[in-house]
Amino acid sequence: MHPGSLESNPAQRRCAIYTRKSSANHLDLEVNTLQTQREVCSAYVKCQAHKNWVELPQKYDDGGFSGGNLKRPALARLMDDIAAGRVDLVVVYKIDRLSRSLSDFIRLIEALEKYGASFVSVTQTFDTSDTMGRLVLNILLTFAQFERELAGDRARDKKAALMRRGLYVGGTPPFGYILERGGRLATDPERAPLVREMFERFPSVTASELVRDFASRGCRTRRYRTKAGVERGGHPIYLNQLLKVLGNPIYTGHIVHRGDWIQADIEALTTREQWDLVQQVRLDRFPMKRDPVRNLLLGILHDEQGRRMKIHGGTGRAAANRYYKSEYTSWSRDGVTRRVMVAADQTEALAISALQAFLVDRVKLKQAILSLGLYSDQIRQLLRMGHKAAKRVERMDRPHLRALITSLVPRMEVNTTGLTLYVSCAELIRFLGWDGVGFFEKCSAGPTRIADRVHTIKSPAFLICGHPRFALPIDVRPLHRATPKPWLVGMLEEAAELRQFMLSNRDKTIAELAREKRIGASTFARMLRVNYLAPDIQAAIVDGTQPEHLTTWHILKGPMPLDWEQQRRLLGFG
Questions:
Q1: 382 in Cβ contact with 276 (< 8 Å)
Q2: How large a percentage of the chain has pLDDT more than 70?
Q3: Which residues have CB under 8 Å from 129's CB, separation 6+?
Q4: Looking at beta carbons, which pairs linking 393-397 to residues 24 or more positions away fall under 8 Å?
Q5: How large is the angle between the packed helices 398-408 and 344-360, nearest 10 degrees?
Q6: Which of 49, 132, 444, 532 has its CA at 20 to 30 Å from residue 271's CA atom?
Q7: Integer Cα distance of 361 and 371 in angstroms
Q8: Per mean pLDDT, which of 60-69, 268-277, 534-543 is the most reliable?
Q9: 350 or 481: whose pLDDT is higher?
Q10: Which residue has the higher pLDDT, 511 or 166?
Q11: Mean pLDDT to the nearest integer, 207-211
Q12: pLDDT of amino acid 526
């Protein structure tokens, strides 16, 4: 059999060499990075001939693809061959050639284990079959992801430094400027006066009047050709273009980098005072367009197709009627995939209600906490904070509520059956342990980029409407108040007392102990079983968050399995 054949042979380990390069530069050269990686990996495979390693002839080369995601054609072909059982071992030059994202790498490792395959890094030797090898591997991947994010920070800082010198990097130059040789921004002699006119006239005339005036004068955006040879621009100045110009601080001669206004070597087309005045007028006239304080779910809510939901309505005669509506993306313009519309007030109320109900539900809250691997006494402390956290949400004003939702629930999805919240478990732990200082300062800095686990909350409700008048009302679930039932709490206390009594009298039988307590032997034995309820069930009884139907009869007279998960399902906690 040919050594590169894909046919199965138990005596051989079929090795597929995978190579990757982020940049597409120099791929046309006879000797490039991909070729170098392949040669090193091929030599390594030949050195393992005593282990029956055989190199496959198929090439899996991804040139010009980032390691920050899994959208790579060669990697997709490799995974298909692994799933088909045609590859036993994946050989890479370095681990970051396979992936620079910890979450993506974990998914790849799980896929390899599922199909009985494994991987080898030539320059970083690891044995992923034992615990220590996996630990070292995860540590190395964490640093690889840190390096990728650090490179992104350096690129952003470099862009800011170039902008300070008046050099523009990437994208179409702003309206009113042209790009000179060397990447320096200079004023467009034809359109710079239009920008000045926009800032001068906008506070005194309406935006529609400005747009009509520019259209009657034949004013258009600058026409240019892309590197691919595509003609762009040359359009009339529409309302969106006008508002985009008025909201860009670059026309004051500044750039905004991480919240700081930095003076740039760019000719200003308006003053900072005039720009501030225009922003105030613009927000007064278009209060609902990009106001995240009133629109709590703006930028967070998506439909089941993955399209972002934008705000619709809320101005004019129907100022009180707001709706979230799907973006009109190009791929959905097929006449079949319709856009989704939901009533904003009801959806926001439902989201807050679902979040509060989750915080007081000890079972679901514990599942989210355990997903981060916290198995110490910290769980008990965090579960106690659930009710306080829910009340804290209830008392928040709109700005703080928006900051909380953005950090705690980075994504929500709506469909025909209800609302789904994806809760960041790491931010949940931080919010539960929040002592009232410092939480919102970190929220305002934006969502973290660390690999995180999410917990899904599903809240059933009929929210979809094809027309604003047909939006069905929904009933928001009231926050469950903690009302401990004295008879259930008393049962726990009595069960603990009987258990201690039994341990102090080990030489006596159950019947003798029951006679001393003047209760039946069967009741005594059933009371002892109460001590073996799952800890979260006992905590829920003490807090009063147990199911309403739960009584002492269910606990004492019903079956009591030792498996905690079966207990939860039996008593209505699952």
A1: no
A2: 78
A3: 118
A4: 393/352, 393/355, 393/356, 393/359, 394/356, 394/479
A5: 70
A6: 444
A7: 16
A8: 268-277
A9: 350
A10: 511
A11: 89
A12: 87
Reported CATH class of domain 13-148: alpha beta
d(CA 241, CA 248): 11
Fold of 177-285: Hect, E3 ligase catalytic domain fold (3.90.1750)
Alpha helices in 206-323 (DSSP H): 207-216, 239-246, 272-285
The DSSP annotation for 413-429 comes to: EEETTEEEEEEEHHHHH
3-state secondary structure of 464: strand
- At 217, list the tokens: 């004068």
> Distance between CA atoms of 175 and 236, rounded to whole angstroms?
12
Structure tokens at 429: 């732990």
Q: How confident is the model at residue 341 (pLDDT cuts 50, 70, 90)?
A: confident
- Centre a 10 Å sphere on the Cβ of residue 118 and count the other Cβ atoms it contains: 14
- Best CA proximity match to 325, nearest among 471, 504, 456, 512: 471
DSSP one-letter code for 238: -
Given a contact cutoff of 8 angstroms between Cβ atoms, the answer to whether 477 and 437 are in contact is no
**DSSP H or E segment with residue 44:** helix 33-47
Per residue in 76-99, pLDDT (tens digit) is 999 989 988 889 889 998 888 888
Query: What's the residue count for the chain?
Result: 574
Radius of gyration of the chain (CA): 32
CA dihedral 466→468→470→472, nearest 10 degrees, is 100
Name the nearest CA neighbour of 552 among 507, 486, 504: 486
Of 452, 544, 441, 448, which is closest to residue 492 (Cα–Cα)?
A: 544
Indicate the range of 101-110, 112-121, 136-145, 174-183 predicted with least confidence: 136-145
- How far is Cα 517 from Cα 498, in angstroms, rounded to an integer? 9
- Tell me the per-residue pLDDT of 233-281, one tens digit each, with 9 for 90 and over: 888 888 888 888 998 888 998 887 666 787 888 888 999 899 989 988 8
Q: Are 351 and 529 in contact (CB under 8 A)?
A: no
- Residue 530 has phi, psi (to 5 degrees) of -60, -30
Domain layout of the chain by residue ranges = 13-148, 177-285, 301-470, 486-571
Higher pLDDT, residue 75 or 573: 75
pLDDT at 289 over 60: no
User: How far is residue 329 from each of residues 164, 201, 279, 309, 553, measured CA to CA in Å?
Assistant: 35, 34, 29, 11, 57
Burial class (CB in 10 A: 0-12, 13-18, 19+), 37: buried
